[in-house]
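W.,

You were right to be curious about this one. When I first looked at the sequence I had no strong expectations either way, so I just let the prediction run and decided to look at it fresh. Below is the sequence, 197 residues in total, followed by the output.
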Amino acid sequence: MEHTLSLIRYINKIVELNSNEEQIIIDALIHRKYLKDQYIVQQGDVCKCINFILKGCTKTSYLDSNGHEHIVMFSIEDWWTSDMGSFITQAPADYNIQCIENTELLQLNYTTVEELFKKVPKLERCFRKITERALVASQKRIITNFSETAKERYLIFKENYPEIEKRVPQYLLASYLGITKEFLSRIKSQLVRETKS
């Protein structure tokens, strides 16, 4: 029960649930634990669940035909992670979701979500708002990637996600920023020198 409270608190910040609605959602949740490096979703498989992170950190990535990994996003506590395209269409996933740390999740599977929307209409509104926020963030990231230098992209990430930067290996952060880890090291060294001067 204790581990479900963070999700209920999260939902209640967006839409106000009554105790009956809270219990309907709690009864539908699946509690799962994954080890570091385990996959929650693998590219090519159908994403059957949406996942709310209670503890841990994950990366969402795309593996291209040359075997190069491209990091799309990181997710930490109180964030959702899934391949939404695959979840909504129940078609094969375009992305991998892998644990960077030991990770604890609350999951809702596809059929359960559809049933919950009927039983608790407020939840559909909640997920619409979450999806809207994710879309805005995604569009902002695209603009940032087109218009900002690597240094500026790093500074924006550092400012917006200081907690994630502390927890993610440098080579993964470099991939997210679209640069090499060596170039990221040079950017960090330059910023240290600028701070001292």
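Here's what jumped out at me. The chain has a mean pLDDT of 94. And, maybe more interesting for your project: The chain is about 55% helix and 20% strand.

Coffee later to discuss?

I.
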